[in-house]
Amino acid sequence: MMTSETVPLCEGPAHDALAAGRPVVPSRARLKPLGTRDVRLTGGHWGEFQDLNRRAVLPHVEHWVERTGWLGNFDAAREGRLPADRHGREFSDSEVYKLLEAMAWELDRAPDPALEARFHAVVERVAAAQEPDGYLSTRFGRPGQGARWSDLEMGHELYCVGHLVQAAVARARTGHPDDLLVRVARRASDLVCEVFGPAGRVTVDGHPEIESALVELYRVTGERRYLEQARLFVERRGHRVLDEIEFGREYFQDDVPVREARVFRGHAVRAVYLAAGQVDLADETGDDVLLAAVARQWRHTVATRTYITGGMGARHQDEAFAEDFALPPDRAYSETCAGIGSVMLAWRLLLAEGDPAYADLIERTLFNVVSTAPSADGRSFFYTNTLHRRELGAVPAGDEPSPRASSSLRAPWFEVSCCPTNLARTLAGLAAYVATSDDDGVQLHQYAAGTVGQDLPDGRSVRLVVTTEYPADGEVRVRVDSDDDRPWTLSLRVPGWASDGATLTVGGTTRPVGPGTVAERRSWRCGDEVVLRLPMQPRFTHPDPRIDAVRGCVAVERGPLVLAVESVDVPGLDTVDHLRVDPAVPPRVVDGRVVVRCTRVVPPEPGWPYRGEPASVGTDEFEDVPLVPYHEWANRGPSTMRIWLPAV
């Protein structure tokens, strides 16, 4: 097994020119990410989501971190009013840092003097609470509070530092390497290296996050101590360096060394954050064994522990992965943060290996978890993302935080509000997950209306304009907006679901293409166009028979979207659980909506629910029942909903 003593460091971080506007900047990966300065989303599904984020989500988050006192905790720290005047959970500092990261990416996307002023005001309040040696926490370290680093199992101290660093990295990579926020984060990180370095405490944080953050800080600054500290944290994980807790060591992945694990397990967000940090570390140290271990664990997890939506985490208790194929739709936890962490991880693996399967999962998760989290107005959110709602939900209070898992509809805020802030930073930087380049050309992995620009290593300048209404339809037009006599390769991903009927048109010639990557190499002239057409007819999807909870059911998908039936679309029906779908009649589009042929069952009389013979149920006539994209459900008031439909 490779250890921190045997894995060599690379020569240095990625060059700054490659880092602008990029959340992740690997030095040795197969593909180079294009960032928020190279890719601009101008409309369509994701352009609208970015506008919603700026217009509603960010101001909403700002309002609530102030209203709840989580931002005021930093003022209380500066003024000596802690712990009496502290508000929120032990990790509430991190929500302020995620807000700052979101602001940093958004300011790079669309500069705004008012937003810039608000950003600086928050940074100054945070910086004023930092202690002379660099320590920064409003929860620990002062008289009347727990001692520094005294609850690494559940206290989230290093996790909070990690999010502070991620915010600083965003600020540095958007043109402000000497910003106050960057200086604050470096001082905090220097203290971490001193306390937990080779001669320091041999332990880790119960919630991984700082691992990726320290690697990115190394990539920004070139300071090797940050990379070395990230490596120490990864190598220590799984060697029982944390105290036992009631959830077990699996909860925070301290049960098995990282290279020996079979699958992602324990708390879902912790698991995917740790894996992302491992990929970052493997890239910078050339540790192919570690990279292969993460890729192996990812494949097993996707094959056995991932919902059709891309959601991860089946257990409400522990917010955790369950056993293989234990994926109950009505008890799905599928936390929004776990979906975001999954996207972060799959993006890193895509950069490292180039396999389009990673981009397939990113697409599925973005459209069916990340898109589902916010309401249509951007002012309420899902923390968990169930696949089956049996009873009408209760409208949460608009002026009080809701319990995270008890909210049956989107809530304005939660007692644990990691998801709204995570969503804000993800949407602000979303353009950085669209495209990549290599020495030979440019690759498009996600489809959104916008522009892509990249200078290749040999000096060629590539400019693309993407026109599409995807996923409303399946046509993606890519126009070359630059001239070059030398050939280069344009690559496009054909999604795994597009197994029949996809075509590519280049130079007036159309040919069929299948799932994977389709590449076209030529000397491109300005105005040349490539048209990818993806089959968008709705389709039934059948579950693996080992998933007991949905055996005998089918789901409906259209393009990358998972669809659901919602009770507001079925008049006279108390619950959608009374519907049975006829799988012999394919789903089809009627008046712009996908419909399926269903019958309504008459439930047996109340009584003992177990019988010696199958219960007979009466049925009504068959009818067309409209479906809704899953990410749009619960925007029309309380309803029942399900994705997996029992077959007649």
Question: Can you describe this structure?
Answer:
The protein has 648 residues and is of the alpha+beta class. The chain has 3 domains: 16-83 and 90-130 and 151-375 and 397-433, Glycosyltransferase (Alpha/alpha barrel); 435-533, Golgi alpha-mannosidase II (Immunoglobulin-like), CATH 2.60.40; 539-646, no CATH class. Helices cover 31% and strands 16% of the residues. It contains 13 helices and 23 strands. It has helices spanning 44-67, 72-78, 92-109, 113-127, 157-173, 180-196, 210-221, 224-236, 268-285, 288-304, 336-353, 356-370, 418-428; strands spanning 32-33, 39-41, 388-389, 435-438, 441-444, 450-455, 461-468, 475-480, 488-494, 503-506, 509-512, 516-522, 529-533, 539-541, 553-558, 561-566, 579-581, 588-590, 593-600, 623-626, 628-629, 641-642, 645-646. Strands 2-6-7-8-13-10-11 form a 7-stranded antiparallel beta sheet. Helix 3 (92-109) packs parallel to helix 5 and helix 9 packs antiparallel against helix 10. It is globular and about 75 Å long.
Overall geometric form? globular
Helix content: 25-40%
- Tally of strands: 23
Counting DSSP H or I runs of 4 or more residues, the number of helices is 13
Count up the domains.
Answer: 3
Low-pLDDT parts are 1-12, 14-18
CATH third-tier fold name of the largest domain = Glycosyltransferase
Computed over alpha carbons, the radius of gyration is 25 Å
CATH architecture of the largest domain: Alpha/alpha barrel
The oligomeric state is single chain
- Largest sheet: spatial strand order: 2-6-7-8-13-10-11
Q: What is the makeup of the main sheet?
A: 7 strands, antiparallel
